[in-house]
Sequence to fold (93 residues):
Amino acid sequence: MIHYKLFSFVILEYFLYLCIIKLNIIIMEKMIKTFGRTELALQYFPKLCPEAAWHKLRQWITLNPVLSHLRDLRRRTFTPAEVQLIYAQLGEP
Fold:
């Protein structure tokens, strides 16, 4: 009887370990990173050339009241917080 309980515990522990690994993989895939503006634009418009994709994304950002402050940035990257805001407003690409 004791061996059966120990075996059940080991199986349960292994199952939980696999669940944690799978959850970590899912979290890592969903992690939002810093994106270059053209890199992000190409995710939304993959069939356009990089410059046209950026101009179109910039137009969408300008027209969205929540995102309009991002058009005045003088850098070529979006921080993870800015990317998350863009995803929340425009949807994920």
In short: Residues 60 and 75 are 18 Å apart (CA to CA). DSSP finds four helices and two strands in the chain.
